């Protein structure tokens, strides 16, 4: 559970957040006492849309106030409903004047939580006796996690699907739709939404004590609520890690699309095969965009495999639970051709532009076949297959392959230790980067792609793997080195010391690192220089290991560690992980360990 926050004070946080939204959009106004963010209703718009609830779900709700979306949002404290008085103030600020235009009025949209329903309802009843234009009330409950037998009185919770209703109803209101029409289309959306969430842990409320982690490292929870309510199902992975998306998302989609006949505890919205749907993948607050995009891909694949037609895919942060590490999936079932409102109208309202800070870009198109969007390039491994003078006999070639395989396996085994070392510097990716490169080279060996190649051609192939599979600085350095080594083998007529020196000199034209620098060049340089001076390979390997060990406590002169500052990784007594990775590789190649 992440329990640190960058704030001034928990007591001022909500108001400061609302004021920050005013900075983003000068057209908005904030009633500070009532915590109502609103925009003046244009004379063309007949209907005002008001929503709200506890803070902590940003960008919901205030982040969706703007042209083409909401008229006003009322905020309570974190995870606490606003009062009826606050809501009444919001309606009075934006409610169209009596008799202003036929069909005008206000639609209040509320997530189905007891406090929200009571306080927004209280305000509506207080206003209804004043002879105003109609104030309508629409409750949204899109949660499919909690079974019917547990919610007989309170009904389904309102989750991220509520935001789709905001967008559709808000766009229609902005186009001049009358109150009856906006309410009717909102009712259709509300009745055809299904949402399910999954998280690896709870969120933390600023100003409260750090709670105890409720889930193990390899455990996730399905159906956890956006106020840290317990979920309905826990799933465990293997080898100390959470289960992969390929196992999690099919279970989520099952819960979204199951029929009431197959599961009378759920089956809230029927999704027969052939149904047209909109998918929303929502970040619950603590998930990286990298993970969210992967979840969007996996969800799309699974939903399409169930025979549903994806008309739109939306992905981003819509309704969070502060910093909860997880995501939710929402499906909106679109109408059939003969139904009202029309499918085309709903899609056009989703696609309509909105000037609200919380609403992201939508493509306005149905997803196409992913295969039509993927391109590939020809593998570099086939570009140098011509046999050259340095070709080895079959026995020597097999020994070379065996040595490369040993080195790759050694790097893979060393990954946890390399990762631990690199975590001290902050990013912790060195072990995984080297492991990815090693696995790529093993794939080349297993697929026979480098069998029969000359050594220089094999070096070119390995360089390609380093570039494609490793990435980053390490991938670039390894790729340059092996490409230059291929050149050196040609130029030096297969003399290893000269070829290696050529590769090192070429590498030095692209990096300023020179030993001692607390980088991978420290062991690499001493190994090559020792061979060039006539030293034996075992002795050179030992010197490389000593150079790697010498990086302990060394102040970095190059690489990312330079930016770790005083007391950085060099002060922690750890070897440089890149340097130790080179030492591990050389020992496995030369000594066989």
From TrEMBL:
<feature type="domain" description="DhaK">
    <location>
        <begin position="9"/>
        <end position="359"/>
    </location>
</feature>
<dbReference type="InterPro" id="IPR036117">
    <property type="entry name" value="DhaL_dom_sf"/>
</dbReference>
<feature type="binding site">
    <location>
        <position position="111"/>
    </location>
    <ligand>
        <name>substrate</name>
    </ligand>
</feature>
<dbReference type="GO" id="GO:0005829">
    <property type="term" value="C:cytosol"/>
</dbReference>
<comment type="similarity">
    <text>Belongs to the dihydroxyacetone kinase (DAK) family.</text>
</comment>
<dbReference type="GO" id="GO:0019588">
    <property type="term" value="P:anaerobic glycerol catabolic process"/>
</dbReference>
<keyword id="KW-0547">Nucleotide-binding</keyword>
<keyword id="KW-0808">Transferase</keyword>
<dbReference type="InterPro" id="IPR012734">
    <property type="entry name" value="DhaK_ATP"/>
</dbReference>
<feature type="region of interest" description="Disordered">
    <location>
        <begin position="372"/>
        <end position="396"/>
    </location>
</feature>
<comment type="pathway">
    <text>Polyol metabolism; glycerol fermentation; glycerone phosphate from glycerol (oxidative route): step 2/2.</text>
</comment>
<comment type="function">
    <text>Catalyzes both the phosphorylation of dihydroxyacetone and of glyceraldehyde.</text>
</comment>
<feature type="active site" description="Tele-hemiaminal-histidine intermediate">
    <location>
        <position position="227"/>
    </location>
</feature>
<dbReference type="InterPro" id="IPR004006">
    <property type="entry name" value="DhaK_dom"/>
</dbReference>
<dbReference type="InterPro" id="IPR050861">
    <property type="entry name" value="Dihydroxyacetone_Kinase"/>
</dbReference>
<protein>
    <recommendedName>
        <fullName>Dihydroxyacetone kinase</fullName>
    </recommendedName>
</protein>
<feature type="compositionally biased region" description="Low complexity">
    <location>
        <begin position="372"/>
        <end position="388"/>
    </location>
</feature>
<feature type="binding site">
    <location>
        <position position="116"/>
    </location>
    <ligand>
        <name>substrate</name>
    </ligand>
</feature>
<dbReference type="GO" id="GO:0050354">
    <property type="term" value="F:triokinase activity"/>
</dbReference>
<feature type="domain" description="DhaL">
    <location>
        <begin position="398"/>
        <end position="591"/>
    </location>
</feature>
<keyword id="KW-0319">Glycerol metabolism</keyword>
<dbReference type="Pfam" id="PF02734">
    <property type="entry name" value="Dak2"/>
</dbReference>
<dbReference type="GO" id="GO:0004371">
    <property type="term" value="F:glycerone kinase activity"/>
</dbReference>
<dbReference type="GO" id="GO:0005524">
    <property type="term" value="F:ATP binding"/>
</dbReference>
<keyword id="KW-0067">ATP-binding</keyword>
<feature type="binding site">
    <location>
        <begin position="54"/>
        <end position="57"/>
    </location>
    <ligand>
        <name>substrate</name>
    </ligand>
</feature>
<keyword id="KW-0418">Kinase</keyword>
<dbReference type="Pfam" id="PF02733">
    <property type="entry name" value="Dak1"/>
</dbReference>
<dbReference type="InterPro" id="IPR004007">
    <property type="entry name" value="DhaL_dom"/>
</dbReference>
């Amino acid at each position: 559970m992440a329990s640190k926050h960058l704030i001034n004070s928990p007591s001022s946080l909500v108001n400061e957040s609302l004021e920050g939204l005013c900075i983003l959009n000068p057209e908005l106004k904030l009633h500070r006492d009532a915590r109502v963010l609103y925009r003046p209703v244009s004379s063309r718009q007949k209907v005002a849309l008001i929503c709200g609830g506890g803070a902590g779900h940003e960008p919901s709700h205030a982040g969706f106030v703007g042209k083409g979306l909401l008229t006003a949002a009322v905020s309570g404290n974190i995870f606490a409903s606003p009062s009826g008085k606050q809501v009444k103030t919001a309606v009075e600020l934006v409610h169209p004047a009596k008799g202003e235009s036929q069909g005008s009025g206000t639609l209040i949209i509320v997530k189905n939580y007891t406090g929200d329903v009571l306080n927004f309802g209280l305000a509506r009843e207080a206003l209804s006796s004043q002879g105003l234009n109609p104030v309508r009330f629409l409750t949204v409950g899109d949660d499919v996690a909690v079974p019917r037998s547990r919610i007989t009185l309170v009904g389904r919770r309102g989750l991220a699907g509520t935001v789709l209703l905001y967008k559709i109803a808000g766009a229609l209101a902005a186009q001049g739709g009358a109150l009856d029409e906006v309410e009717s289309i909102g009712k259709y959306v509300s009745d055809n939404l299904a949402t399910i969430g999954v998280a690896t842990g709870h969120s933390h409320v600023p100003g409260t004590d750090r709670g105890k982690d409720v889930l193990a490292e390899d455990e996730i929870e399905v159906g956890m609520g956006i106020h840290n309510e317990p979920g309905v199902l826990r799933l465990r992975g293997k080898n100390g890690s959470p289960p992969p998306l390929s196992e999690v998302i099919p279970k989520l989609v099952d819960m979204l699309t199951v029929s009431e006949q197959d599961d009378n505890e759920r089956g809230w919205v029927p999704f027969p095969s052939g149904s047209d749907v909109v998918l929303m993948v929502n970040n619950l607050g603590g998930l990286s965009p990298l993970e969210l995009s992967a979840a969007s891909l996996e969800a799309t694949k699974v939903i399409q495999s169930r025979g549903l037609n994806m008309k739109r895919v939306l992905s981003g942060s819509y309704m969070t639970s502060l910093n909860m590490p997880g995501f939710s999936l929402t499906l909106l079932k679109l109408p059939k051709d003969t139904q009202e409102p029309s499918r085309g109208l709903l899609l056009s309202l989703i696609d309509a532009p909105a000037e609200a800070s919380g609403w992201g870009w939508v493509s306005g198109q149905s997803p196409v076949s992913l295969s039509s969007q993927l391109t590939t390039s020809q593998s570099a491994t086939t570009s140098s297959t011509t046999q050259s003078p340095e070709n080895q006999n079959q026995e020597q070639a097999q020994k070379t392959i065996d040595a490369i395989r040993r080195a790759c396996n050694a790097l893979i085994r060393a990954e946890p230790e390399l990762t631990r070392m690199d975590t001290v510097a902050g990013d912790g990716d060195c072990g995984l980067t080297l492991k990815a490169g090693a696995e790529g080279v093993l794939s080349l060996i297993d697929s026979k792609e480098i069998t029969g190649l000359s050594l220089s051609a094999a070096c070119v192939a390995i360089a390609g793997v380093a570039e494609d599979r490793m990435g980053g600085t390490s991938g670039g350095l390894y790729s340059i080195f092996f490409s230059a080594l291929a050149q050196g083998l040609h130029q030096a007529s297969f003399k290893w010391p000269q070829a290696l020196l050529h590769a090192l000199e070429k590498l030095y034209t692209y990096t300023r690192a020179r030993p001692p620098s607390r980088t991978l060049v420290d062991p690499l340089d001493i190994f090559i220089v020792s061979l060039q001076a006539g030293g034996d390979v075992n002795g050179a390997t030992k010197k490389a290991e000593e150079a790697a060990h010498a990086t302990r406590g060394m102040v970095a002169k190059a690489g990312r560690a330079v930016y770790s500052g005083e007391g950085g990784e060099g002060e922690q007594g750890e070897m440089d992980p890149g340097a130790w990775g080179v030492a591990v590789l050389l020992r496995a190649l030369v000594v066989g360990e």
